[in-house]
Each structure stands twice: as structure tokens, then as C-alpha cells.
Amino acid sequence: MNWKVLYCFLWVAMARSFLFAQDPFGMSFQTQRAMINPSFVGITGVESIQMNAKMQWNNFGDASDRYQTLSVLIEEPLPCTRLLDIGIKLMHDQEGKARYKTTELGFLSSITITPVKTKFIQHNIRIGGDFSFGRNSLDFSNLIFSDQLDPKYGIYDKFGNLNHTAFVAPGNNQSWYFNPGFGVSYIRKTNATTHRSYVINTGMAAYRAYGTINTRWLQYNSLTGIATVDPWRLTAHFLYEKNYAHLNSNLSKIKFFAVYQNQGGIDYVEIGTRVGVINNRLGLVSSLHFTPLSQYTNNTKWVDLMLEYKFKPRQGRLVEMNLSYGHNIGGLSNTIGPILGLGFAYRLNKSTLCKLDNIYDVNCYDLTLPENWRIYENVWYKD
To answer: What CATH class has 2-355?
Structure first.
């Protein structure tokens, strides 16, 4: 029986080795920043809800067998506190024939420190925390074991019935885990009072780093009784965004970004650009993804294009939509098929929690007030 359990485990590990080595993540850093580094939560400066979906391995098996990731992020910035922003995230990931599922719920928060205040240059340090709990589960009934393989008929007998297996699934097909994260970002905005400002944002984040302090705190994740360590994840990012004002008062933006992740000895890099035109209402994002230190680098390179569109259904409301298409440019392109992504965000020009507290005399969403000095992204197309 032990060898069958081991066979099952190895099959699952190979089918979803990326998850054992790395946490699930979305289509692009551009749409999943707060999921990668919690210091990004609330950086838009507006109350919002975001939803993103990613579908991978679209050439593999039935639609239900493919790799799917869904995420929801609710952000509540608190400009009136001059310090704190908060958020809630929900992520669900399903992978492969065995329906390996990961569901994670977390509370995010970030504080902003403004060490230097000048007329033309703003400096912010954002420190974020992510307190998430998750559950993994596996459907053993969808797995195929070695004793089900017939040399002539495969997994079915001559009558077309699925062959039986002696494998007995464990009584518990799920496990729970704690996934805390910590992140920090340094933000510098130059010429902040003009339409030719530029922003630099760089930082790092770590998840499950407590295991590096004491091995007794390592997170173990197993469905079959075999101790499997969930490795800690390290992330670093850099982005540069420049504003351009035109004679017709339209504002354009161009952004360059790079992200590096390492978890379980696997490196992942994403580099890309975003161009926003017509007051940033229309955007095009292009990214290159690869694993630079892996012997499988040539097989894992992929590129994606994302089209963004934003509009105001009415004053103080903003709707953002994006559609992504990714293509593997390595040896797996014919096997895995395209990678598809879809995103939606709804933003409100207010802060509900700030309005509940009347002790502050600051307009909670008027970011032009000098006492704020916090660098929020300009989602309303003007500085």
C-alpha cells in the first residue's frame, strides 16, 4: 500500500509541482500587486473592489481539468488617518484532473510614513502586513493509479468500465495553513504638483518567513501523511511611471516594471511596460515572464498582452476592465495552449470608514490637501 500512496503523491506533485514550489498567483503583477506585496493595499486612494480570473493549460483535458485562479480584493483607504489603509482578499485556485484546490482568505493592512516633505518631491515608506489562512483539498477519486493500467485496454477493461484500484484514500482530503506576509515599499514622486511628475516605487515582501527563524515553525502541508514543507516566498519589485501632458490637456502615462520571486528554489521574473493614453482611460500592458535560473527556462518563457479600459459611469465612480492573452514562447506552447485573463474593478471616490469618524476635519478623499502628503495613485486622470 505504501508504494501506491507514494505513487499517488508523486503524480500529484508532478501535476502541480508549481504549487508545491510556489503559491498561486495571477496573470500579471499589474493586477495582483497587493497579493504579492501587502504594502500596495489601498495605494489607489479610493474605496474599491477588484476581481481577477486566470485560466491556464487550456489545451489540456476538459475545461474542468484546467488550471484556474480567481481572486477578489476589497480595499478601504483611510486618508483621514494620515497613516493606515486596509483591505480583505479572497483567492481560489484549482489545478489539474485531481481538482487540487487552494482557498485563501486574508486581512491586509499598510501604514505610510512620510519622512521628508518638500514642495516638489514627496517620499513615502509603506509597510504592509498580510494575515491569511488557507485550505488545500484534493479529489482522490479523479486520480489514476498504476494498478488500474491494463497493457491492452489502458485504464478501462474490455467492456469499457474503469479498472478498480486497491488504493484507499485517506480519511482527510484537506489541510489548513497559515500564510502571513510582510512587505515594504519606498515611493518617490517628483514634480508632484505638475503634469510631468514621475513616480518610483521599489520594495520587497516575504511570506512564511517565520520558518527561516526557527525550523520548528515551518509550515507543513500534506494530504497523505507525508511531511511536505511549504517554503517561504521572497518578492522584490521595481516600477517607474512617468506622466506626460499634451496641449489638449489629455494625460498620458508610461510605466516600466520588474518583479522577481523566489520560492522553494524556483525563480520567477516578470518585466513589462504599460502605456496609458486619453487621460489614462485606455491602457496596453505587455510583459515577459521567465524563470532565469532554471534548467527549463526555454520551456517556461511566456509573454502576455493586456488591454485595459476605464470609464466613469457617473461622478465619483470608476469602472476598470482588462482582458489578457498569454502565449508560451518555449517548448510547451503546443501543449499548454494560451493563458487567458479577465479583470474588473469598481472604485468609489470616498472612504466609508473615514466618514464614520467625525473627529477628523480632513476631506477623506481630497488628496490635494498638503497635510496628507501621502502618495496615492491617480485613478481620476488628473494630478
So the answer is: mainly beta
Residue 202's φ and ψ, nearest 5 degrees, are -140, 150
Chain-centroid distance of CA 301 in Å reads 19
Question: What is the Cα–Cα distance from 56 to 69, expressed in whole angstroms?
Answer: 9
CA nearest neighbour of 219 among 85, 190, 210: 210
Give the contacts of 343 (CB within 8 A, at least 6 positions apart): 27, 31, 50, 51, 52, 53, 320, 321, 322, 323, 324
Closest residue by Cα to residue 179 from 217, 145, 127: 217
Q: H-helix or E-strand containing 4?
A: helix 2-15
Look at strands 84-95 and 100-117 and give their pairing.
antiparallel
> How far apart (Å, rounded) are the C-alpha atoms in residues 21 and 68?
17
What is the rounded distance in angstroms from the CA atom of residue 3 to the CA atom of residue 119? 69
The structural domains of the chain, with segments of one domain joined by +, span 2-355
Instruction: Note whether 378 and 44 are within 8 A (CB).
Output: no
The pair phi, psi for residue 326, each rounded to 5°, is -115, 145
pTM over 0.90: no
d(CA 110, CA 84): 6
| C-alpha cell belonging to residue 354 | 473615514
Please identify which residue in the block is written with the cell numbers 515594504: 184
Q: What is the DSSP string of 124-154?
A: EEEEEEEEEEEEEE--GGG---GGG-BTTTB
pLDDT in tens, the chain (383 residues): 333 433 433 344 433 434 444 677 777 888 889 999 999 998 888 889 999 999 887 666 666 677 889 999 999 887 677 788 999 999 999 887 777 888 999 999 999 888 776 777 888 999 999 999 888 887 777 777 777 777 777 777 777 777 777 777 666 677 788 888 999 999 998 875 556 678 999 999 998 876 555 555 556 666 665 556 677 889 999 999 987 765 455 677 899 999 999 887 788 899 999 998 877 788 999 999 888 876 666 667 889 999 999 998 988 889 999 999 988 887 666 567 788 999 999 998 877 777 765 544 444 444 444 445 678 876 654 43
| Structure-derived torsion over alpha carbons of residues 124, 42, 179, 132, reported in degrees to the nearest 10 | 150
Q: Which amino acid is at 325?
A: Y
Rounded to the nearest 10°, the torsion over CA 309, 280, 374, 318 is -40
